[in-house]
TrEMBL record:
GO terms under cellular component: plasma membrane
Keywords, comma-separated and alphabetical: Cell membrane, Membrane, Transmembrane, Transmembrane helix, Transport
Residue span, Major facilitator superfamily (MFS) profile domain: 1-447
Database matches in Pfam families: MFS_1
TM ranges: 36-54, 66-92, 98-119, 126-147, 153-174, 186-206, 218-235, 247-269, 289-307, 319-336, 342-364, 385-405, 425-442
Compartments it resides in: Cell membrane
Organism placement in taxonomy: Bacteria, Bacillati, Actinomycetota, Actinomycetes, Mycobacteriales
Name of the featured protein: Multidrug ABC transporter
Source organism per UniProt: Rhodococcus rhodnii LMG 5362
GO molecular function, one term: transmembrane transporter activity
Length: 458
C-alpha cells in the first residue's frame, strides 16, 4: 500500500503542482495564454481519457509490470517537461506525462482491489487511496511554490524522476507479479480516438478566446462530434468494449458521471484562478501564492475525514447538495472580483470544503448502481469523467478570463486580470450551480426507485 500510495500521491500532486508555476513558466518560455492552458489541460486530458486503456493494459500484461511501465513513462514525461526549451515542447511533455499517469494510476488501483479482498481491508485501503489523492492535490500547491521559489519551475517536474525511481525499486520488492487471465485486445485505436476527440473539443473551447468567428473553432468542434460519435457507435456494438457505454443507460450512474465532471472542473479551475489572482493581481511570489492556496486544500482534507459519518446520518444526496451549495456561494462571491486577498483565501477554502462533499457521494452513488462484474470498468469510466472535467474546466475558465482581459482593459494589467479572474469564477459558479441540478435529479431518482445507499458504499 505504501508503494502504490506513493504513485497515487505524485500523480495527483502533478495535477495541481503546475498551477503555482504557471506564471513563472509563462515568463521564462514566453508562452501564450493558450499554451499555458494546455500545460494544465494536456496532463489531465490524457490522464482521464487513457485511464480505461491503462486498466486494460494492466489486465493484459500483468499488474506489477503495468505499474512499472507507468512509472517509467511518467518519469520520462517528467524529464521531458523539466528540460523543455519552449512552450510547445512542454505541452508535449505534459501529454506524455499524462499518458504515463493513466497507466500508473489504473495499474495501482487494480493492485489495491486485487490485494485487499476482504471487505473491511478493501474499505480501509480505498479510503487511504482517496485520502492520498486529496493529500497530493493539497500538497501540490505548496510543493510547487517551494520548488519554484528555491530551485525554479523546472524542478516541479524533475523531482518526479527521483520519486518514480524509488517507487519502481520498491515495487519489485513489495508487489506480487499478479498475472492475469486470458489475453484481451488492448483496443488501442479506440483509446487514441477518444483522446483525439476530447483534445479537439478542448482546442475548440480554448480558441473561443478570440471570438466565435474563427473557422478553426467550428472545424475542431465538428471533428470532436464526429470522432466521439463514431467511437460511441462502434463501442456500443462491440462484444468487448473499452468504453462501457451501456452503463450510461443507468440514470443514476449517468447523473453521477456528469456530477463528477462538474466537480472536477470546479476543483482544478479554482486552484488555477487562485494562483493567477495571487501572483498576477497582488504580485505574490510562488511560495506565498502556494501558501495562500493551502487553506483550500486543508479544508478539503478536513471535510473528507467527516464525510463518511455525514453520509451515514444525512444520506449521500443531501451531503452532495450541501457541498454543491458551498461551491456556488464561494465561486459566486469570487466572481464579484474581491480585492482583499484574505477574503479570497476564505472563499477558496469554502469551495475546497464543498469538494469532498461532491466527490465521495458521487463515487458511492455511481458505483452502487453497477453490477459486481462491471466494478472495474465502472469505476474507470467515473474516473474518466472526473479527469476530463478538469481539462474542459481549465479550457472554459481560461477562455472566459482571456476574453475579458482582451476586451475591457488594454492598460492596467492587474485590474484587467482581476476582471478576468472574476469572469473565470463566474464560469466556475455556473458549473457549481449545474451540480445542484444534478443533485436534484439524483434526489428524484433515489426517491422514485426507492434506492437507499448504505454508509459503507460511500
Amino acid at each position: 500500500m505504501v508503494v502504490v500510495g506513493m504513485a497515487q500521491l505524485i500523480v495527483m500532486l502533478d495535477a495541481t503542482v503546475v498551477n503555482v508555476a504557471i506564471p513563472s513558466i509563462g515568463r521564462d518560455l514566453s508562452a501564450s495564454e493558450a499554451a499555458l492552458q494546455w500545460i494544465i489541460s494536456g496532463y489531465v486530458l490524457m490522464y482521464g481519457s487513457l485511464l480505461l486503456l491503462g486498466g486494460r493494459f494492466a489486465d493484459v500484461i500483468g499488474r506489477r509490470r503495468a505499474f512499472a511501465v507507468g512509472l517509467v513513462l511518467f518519469a520520462a514525461g517528467s524529464m521531458w517537461c523539466g528540460l523543455a526549451t519552449d512552450a510547445g515542447v512542454l505541452v508535449a511533455g505534459r501529454i506524455a506525462q499524462g499518458a504515463g499517469a493513466a497507466v500508473l494510476s489504473a495499474a495501482a488501483l487494480s493492485i489495491v482491489v486485487t490485494t485487499y479482498v476482504a471487505a473491511d481491508q478493501r474499505r480501509i485501503a480505498l479510503t487511504a487511496w482517496s485520502g492520498l489523492g486529496v493529500l497530493g492535490a493539497t500538497l501540490g500547491v505548496v510543493v510547487g511554490g517551494v520548488l519554484v521559489e528555491l530551485l525554479g519551475w523546472r524542478w516541479v517536474f524533475l523531482i518526479n524522476v527521483a520519486f518514480a525511481a524509488v517507487a519502481l525499486l520498491a515495487a519489485y520488492r513489495a508487489v506480487d507479479p499478479m498475472r492475469t487471465g486470458p489475453r484481451r485486445s488492448l483496443r488501442f485505436p479506440t483509446a487514441i480516438s477518444v483522446s483525439a476527440g476530447l483534445a479537439a473539443l478542448t482546442y475548440a473551447v480554448i480558441e473561443l478566446r478570440d471570438g466565435p468567428g474563427r473557422p478553426q473553432v467550428w472545424i475542431f468542434l465538428a471533428v470532436a462530434i464526429v470522432v466521439l460519435g463514431a467511437v460511441g457507435t462502434l463501442e456500443s456494438r462491440s462484444t468487448d468494449p473499452l468504453l462501457p457505454l451501456r452503463l450510461l443507460c443507468i440514470p443514476a450512474y449517468l447523473a453521477s458521471s456528469i456530477g463528477l465532471l462538474f466537480a472536477s472542473a470546479v476543483m482544478i479551475s479554482s486552484s488555477y484562478l487562485g494562483s493567477i489572482y495571487f501572483q498576477d493581481v497582488h504580485s505574490f511570489g510562488p511560495l506565498p501564492a502556494g501558501l495562500s492556496l493551502l487553506p483550500m486544500g486543508l479544508a478539503s482534507l478536513a471535510v473528507a475525514l467527516i464525510i463518511p459519518k455525514a453520509i451515514a446520518v444525512r444520506g449521500p444526496v443531501r451531503v452532495y447538495s450541501a457541498g454543491a451549495a458551498a461551491q456556488v456561494v464561494g465561486a459566486a462571491a469570487l466572481a464579484t472580483g474581491p480585492e482583499n486577498p484574505a477574503m479570497v483565501i476564505v472563499l477558496l477554502a469554502l469551495i475546497g470544503a464543498g469538494l469532498p462533499s461532491a466527490f465521495v457521494p458521487l463515487y458511492g452513488i455511481g458505483s452502487s448502481h453497477v453490477a459486481f462484474a462491471d466494478a472495474g470498468v465502472g469505476s474507470g469510466l467515473l474516473n474518466t469523467f472526473n479527469q476530463t472535467g478538469g481539462a474542459l474546466g481549465i479550457a472554459v475558465v481560461g477562455t472566459a478570463m482571456a476574453a475579458v482581459v482582451r476586451t475591457h482593459h488594454s492598460g492596467a494589467r492587474p485590474a484587467a486580470t482581476l476582471d478576468g479572474v472574476g469572469a473565470g469564477f463566474l464560469a466556475v459558479a455556473i458549473a457549481a450551480a449545474a451540480s445542484l441540478v444534478v443533485a436534484a435529479v439524483l434526489r428524484r431518482l433515489t426517491r422514485t426507485t426507492g434506492v437507499r445507499l448504505a454508509a459503507e458504499q460511500a
